[in-house]
From TrEMBL, chain A:
Protein name (database record): Small ribosomal subunit protein uS9m
Compositionally biased tracts (Basic residues): 321-330
Lineage, opening ranks: Eukaryota, Fungi, Dikarya, Ascomycota, Pezizomycotina
Keywords (A to Z) from UniProt: Ribonucleoprotein, Ribosomal protein
Gene Ontology molecular-function annotations: RNA binding; structural constituent of ribosome
The keyword Endoplasmic reticulum belongs to this UniProt entry's keyword annotation: no
Species this protein is from: Arthrobotrys musiformis
Keyword Heme among record annotations: no
From TrEMBL, chain B:
Gene name linked to the record: MRP4
GO biological process assignments: translation
Organism this protein belongs to: Arthrobotrys musiformis
Identification of the protein by name: 37S ribosomal protein, mitochondrial
InterPro entries found in the cross-reference section: Ribosomal_uS2 (IPR001865), Ribosomal_uS2_bac/mit/plastid (IPR005706), Ribosomal_uS2_CS (IPR018130), Ribosomal_uS2_flav_dom_sf (IPR023591)
Pfam family, one: Ribosomal_S2
Matches recorded under PROSITE patterns: RIBOSOMAL_S2_1
C-alpha cells in the first residue's frame, strides 16, 4: 500500500513519528510561538499524512475549542463570520449533558439508508421464513410489483435498476410461500410493494361495436402501426383513404390484408377502412392484417379457432436486430485479412 | 472440518415411541391454538414453533389444564382432510420427533450458527480458529513482507498464519470494539465482498452500530456533509433511548419558535424528544471494522486522514500497517470472516450491555445520594422545627411567668 494510506496509529509510523519528533525538537520549539496552538498529538502525526495543512489545523482547533485561544485563531474567525451572518446564527445548539448524536438508520454510512433499510427488512423476512414450504412459480397468482420510479419515490432515494431487480427477486421468492402459511408480516410487506392499480390494469377494455356498426381495432408489425374499422358491407377496402391496390402494388400484401376475411369466407360481407403509419409496405400490410383480424373477432368472436389456424391472431414479434460493435451489421463480420 | 461421528443411542425404543407420540400430541395442541377473532374453519397457529421448549413444557407438566383438554375436544376425524397449515405443523412435529431416533450427531459445523449465535471473545480457542481455516494465507509468491512476524510457516505453497497470533490479535480487537461500544462510540462494519453481507449486518445489529455492505462511497468521511447530510440523526442517552423534553423545556421551545416569527402560536407542534437543528453536521464513525482492506483502500485512507482507528483482517498479501489494529487471518474464507466479525459483534454487544449496566448503577447511585440528602435535610428540618417549638414554648412560659409576677406585684401593691 502506498505511503499515503499508511495509518498514523500503526506501530512503525508511531516509531517514526517519535524519531522525527526527537530529531526536530529544537526546531519545533523555536517555531512554537509562530504557529497557532494545537495538541501535541496532532503535531507528531503531522509529518507524514496526506491531510492538507489547513484541515489539520481545523481538526486541532476543534479539539481545544474550550481552551482560551488567541484572537487570530480559526475558531475566532468562524465566530466572527457567524456573528456577521445574523443574530440567529450565533445562537448555538447545545446538546443536553450525556447525550450523543447518532444516526437513525444502521445503513447511514452507505449514503442511501432509505433503500438499504427496505432491502434489509425484506432480507430479514426472507431469512426468517426461509424454511416455509413454497409453491411452484407457475402456481403463483399473477402479481405486478411497483415500477422503478414508483419504488424510488417510495424508498425516497436514488436506486439503480439493477438493485431494484434484486429487490424484485426477493419479493418473488416471498410471494412463493404457500398462501395458507403466509405470515401476516410478509403479507403486509408484499402489499406495500404491489402495484396499487394492478386490478384496474387487469380489467380489459370491453370490445364494442359502436352506434354506426363499426368495430375498431389496432395492430402492429415491425415498426408499423395500423388501425382498422370493420363495418358490415359489400367488400370495400380502403387504406389511408385510398383503394387497396394504390397503396399496395404487390399482390402478396393485398392478399395478406384480406386473408382473415378470405379464410372465413367473409370478403364480401365487410367493409374495411384502415389507416397505417410508420414502417415499410410489408410491415404496414401485416399491421393492417392484425387490426382487421381483431376487428373481425369483435364482430364474430366464434371465428377465433379458425383465425388462429390461419395464423393471423399472433402479433409477429420479429423486428430489426440491433447492430453490434465489432460487426458491420447485426451479425456481419468485417472481412478477415490474412497477414 | 470436524468429521461428523455418529454414536448409537442407548435408550429403549419404547421410550422413543412414547416421545414421538408425546410430540405429536403436543403438536396437535399447538395447532388448535387459535388466535381470537379467527374463524374456526381456518385454524391458525404459530408458524415457527420451538419444539424443544414445547416438549420440555409437556414433560415438566404432564397434564397442563389449558392445552390438554383442548386437544381432546379437537380429535381429528379420520375422513377429514387436513389444511395446509395443519399438514405443515404435523410434518414439522414428526420430523422433530423422528430426528431424535437413531444416533446422536456430535458437535459439528452448522454454517448458520456463526451468524445467528456467534462465539463471544471468551470462547476463542486455537481449535476453533483452526477449524474455521483462519490460519490459511495466500500463495507464498503473493505475500507482503510486513506479515513476517505473523507467519508460522509454509505448507503446500501457501503461508500459514500462527494461530496464537490470530487469537491474540482477535482478542485485542474485540477489547477495542468492547471499549468503543461501552463508551457509546459509532462503530461501522465494512464488508463489501459477496457473501459477507449477512454476517456484517448481524454484527452491526448486535452492537447497534452501522454497516456498509456494498461499495464504500469515496468521501463518506472526507466529504460527509455532502454525502450524508440529508439523512436523519437523533439524540440518544447512554441507554440508547431518545431524550425526552420536560414540559418546561417544551414551553421554552415554543416561546422561542414564536419569537422566531411563527404566527400561529396555538398551532405550534413541539416534539417530545430533543431534535437536532436543521443542517446539523453529519456524523463520522469512531471505529471502523474492515473485513477486506484490500478492496477498501480509499476508506482506510479516509480513516487515516481523520484519525479514525480501524480494525482489519489482514491476510498474508495485505500490508498490516494499512489498519490500526490488524487481525492477521484468512479473509477469503467466508467461515473465518464470519467467525471474526461474529466475535467482534459479540464484543460490541457485551460492551453495549456493560454501558447499560454502568448507566443503571450510576442512576441508582444518584438516586441513593438524592435520598440521603433528602433524609439529612428532613432530619435537620425536624430538629430546627422542634427547637423552634421548644423555644416558643419557653418564651411563652417565661412571658406568662412575667405576667403572673406583674399581676402578683399589682395585687401586692393594692
Amino acid at each position: 500500500m502506498s505511503s499515503a494510506t499508511r495509518n498514523p496509529f500503526s506501530m512503525t509510523c508511531c516509531l517514526r513519528a517519535l524519531l522525527e519528533d526527537a530529531s526536530f525538537s529544537g526546531r519545533s520549539l523555536r517555531m512554537a510561538d509562530t504557529r497557532p496552538r494545537m495538541l501535541r498529538s496532532y503535531q507528531q502525526t503531522r509529518a507524514f499524512t496526506a491531510t492538507p495543512r489547513r484541515m489539520q489545523d481545523k481538526a486541532a482547533e476543534k479539539e481545544d475549542d474550550d481552551v482560551d485561544t488567541g484572537p487570530q485563531t480559526i475558531t475566532a474567525k468562524f465566530k466572527k463570520v457567524r456573528e456577521r451572518d445574523g443574530p440567529d446564527a450565533d445562537e448555538e445548539f447545545e446538546l443536553p449533558p450525556g447525550a450523543r448524536v447518532v444516526p437513525v438508520s444502521a445503513s447511514y454510512f452507505t449514503g442511501n439508508s432509505a433503500f438499504f433499510d427496505s432491502w434489509f427488512t425484506l432480507k430479514d423476512l426472507l431469512y426468517k421464513y426461509q424454511t416455509l414450504p413454497t409453491i411452484l412459480p407457475s402456481e403463483v397468482p399473477r402479481t405486478a410489483w411497483r415500477t422503478l420510479p414508483d419504488f424510488r419515490s417510495m424508498a425516497g432515494g436514488v436506486v439503480q435498476a439493477s438493485k431494484y431487480k434484486k429487490v424484485r427477486a426477493v419479493l418473488q421468492r416471498l410471494n412463493r410461500i404457500q398462501p395458507d402459511l403466509m405470515p401476516e408480516d410478509v403479507k403486509s410487506v408484499l402489499d406495500n410493494y404491489k402495484r396499487p392499480d394492478f386490478a384496474a390494469m387487469q380489467r380489459r377494455r370491453p370490445k364494442i361495436i359502436d352506434r354506426f356498426g363499426r368495430a375498431r381495432a389496432a395492430g402492429r408489425r415491425k415498426t408499423s402501426n395500423a388501425e382498422a374499422y370493420l363495418v358490415e358491407g359489400s367488400g370495400g377496402c380502403y387504406v389511408n383513404g385510398k383503394p387497396l391496390f394504390e397503396i399496395f402494388p404487390r399482390l402478396v400484401d393485398r392478399e395478406s390484408i384480406l386473408w382473415p376475411l378470405k379464410v372465413t369466407n367473409r370478403v364480401d360481407r365487410y367493409n374495411v377502412w384502415a389507416s397505417s403509419r410508420g414502417g415499410g409496405i410489408s410491415g404496414q400490410a401485416g399491421a393492417i392484417t392484425l387490426a382487421v383480424t381483431k376487428a373481425l373477432l369483435t364482430h364474430e368472436p366464434l371465428l377465433k379457432p379458425v383465425l388462429r389456424r390461419a395464423g393471423v391472431i399472433t402479433r409477429d414479434p420479429r423486428t430489426v436486430e440491433r447492430k453490434k460493435h465489432g460487426k458491420r451489421k447485426a451479425r456481419d463480420m468485417p472481412a478477415w485479412v490474412a497477414r | 472440518m470436524i468429521p461428523r461421528r455418529v454414536a448409537t443411542r442407548s435408550s429403549q425404543p419404547l421410550r422413543l415411541i412414547s416421545q414421538y407420540t408425546l410430540c405429536l400430541r403436543q403438536h396437535r395442541s399447538i395447532s388448535t391454538e387459535t388466535s381470537p377473532g379467527s374463524s374456526p374453519a381456518a385454524p391458525r397457529g404459530p408458524l415457527i414453533v420451538d419444539f424443544e421448549e414445547q416438549v420440555k413444557l409437556a414433560a415438566s407438566e404432564p397434564s397442563r389444564p389449558s392445552i390438554v383438554p383442548q386437544a381432546r375436544t379437537q380429535v381429528q376425524t379420520p375422513g377429514k382432510t387436513l389444511t395446509k397449515l395443519e399438514e405443515y405443523q404435523r410434518l414439522k412435529a414428526a420430523k422433530h420427533a423422528s430426528d431424535q431416533i437413531g444416533g446422536v450427531l456430535e458437535d459439528h459445523y452448522k454454517p448458520h450458527e456463526l451468524i445467528t449465535n456467534p462465539p463471544s471473545p471468551r470462547d476463542i480457542t486455537l481449535e476453533l480458529l483452526l477449524a474455521s481455516g483462519a490460519h490459511l494465507g495466500h500463495a507464498t509468491a503473493l505475500w507482503n513482507p510486513g506479515n513476517q512476524r505473523f507467519i508460522f510457516g509454509i505448507r503446500q505453497g501457501i503461508h500459514l498464519i500462527s494461530l496464537d497470533v490470530i487469537a491474540a490479535h482477535l482478542r485485542r480487537a474485540a477489547k477495542i470494539v468492547h471499549g468503543v461500544s461501552k463508551n457509546g462510540g459509532i462503530i461501522v462494519f465494512v464488508g463489501t465482498r459477496d457473501g459477507q453481507e449477512r454476517a456484517v449486518v448481524e454484527a452491526a445489529k448486535r452492537t447497534k452500530g452501522f454497516h456498509v455492505t456494498e461499495r464504500w462511497v469515496p468521501g463518506t468521511i472526507t466529504n460527509k456533509d455532502q454525502l450524508l447530510g440529508d439523512q436523519k440523526l437523533r439524540v440518544l442517552d447512554h441507554l440508547d433511548q431518545e431524550i425526552q423534553l420536560t414540559e418546561q423545556q417544551k414551553a421554552q421551545l415554543k416561546k422561542k419558535l414564536a419569537a422566531a416569527g411563527n404566527k400561529d402560536t396555538d398551532k405550534l407542534q413541539v416534539e417530545d424528544t430533543v431534535q437536532l437543528p436543521f443542517r446539523y453536521p453529519a456524523i463520522r464513525p469512531d471505529l471502523v471494522v474492515c473485513l477486506n482492506p484490500l478492496e477498501n483502500k480509499t476508506m482506510l485512507q479516509e480513516c487515516a486522514q481523520y484519525r479514525i482507528p480501524t480494525i482489519g483482517i489482514t491476510d498474508t498479501d495485505v500490508d498490516p500497517t494499512c489498519v490500526t489494529y490488524p487481525i492477521p487471518a484468512n479473509d477469503d474464507s467466508l467461515r473465518s470472516v464470519q467467525l471474526i466479525v461474529g466475535v467482534l459483534g459479540r464484543a460490541g454487544q457485551e460492551g453495549r450491555l456493560a454501558r447499560y449496566e454502568a448507566e443503571a448503577d450510576r442512576t441508582e447511585e444518584l438516586e441513593r445520594k438524592r435520598k440521603r440528602l433528602e433524609e439529612s435535610q428532613r432530619i435537620q428540618e425536624e430538629a430546627t422545627t422542634t427547637a423552634q417549638i421548644h423555644k416558643d414554648a419557653e418564651q411563652a412560659a417565661s412571658e406568662s411567668r412575667q405576667q403572673e409576677l406583674e399581676r402578683e406585684s399589682l395585687i401586692s401593691d393594692r
